[in-house]
Amino acid sequence: MARRTPPRRAKGRDAGRRGKKKVSALTIGKVDYVDYKDTELLRKFVSERAKLKARRITGNSEQQQREVARAVKNAREMALIPYTNRVTTQRRERRNDERGPRADGPPPRPSGPPPGSEAEAGGEEVLEDADVAAAVEADAVETEVVETEEVES
Question: Which DSSP string do the residues of the chain spell out, in sequence order?
């Protein structure tokens, strides 16, 4: 029978540490029923961007997390909590020196087809030959039309 290898463990300072399990705010407050009208309690379980916080962050059990999720959804439906919060960040001022001057004229065209395209395989040469043949035929038709007009007049 094959030997079993021991499971890999984390290396370094955190090796062997699981940490204390976080205790839920519902457990601390001895809350039996999560009411959708209690917005102060529900805000503890919602991030600043109005997303539900994960169980590992809040310390909720599975049942508590389901109750909180249902209450938050009901509170959103009743417009007690917003669906989304806009978080604005301050942008730094931009100076004109940071960007170079604008280029005059149209943007540069690509120099050629990308490597591995059909053009390298000879497909482009066939198109050029076909274009040349079409141009020769068009010239021949034009000269015939001009000659027939001269003959008729």
Answer: -PPPPPPP---STTTT---PPPPPHHHHTT-SS--TT-HHHHHTTB-TTSPBPPHHHH---HHHHHHHHHHHHHHHHTTSS-S------PPPP--GGGSPPPPPSSPPPPSSPPTTSTTTTTHHHHHHHHHHHHHHHHHHHHHHHHHHHHHH-
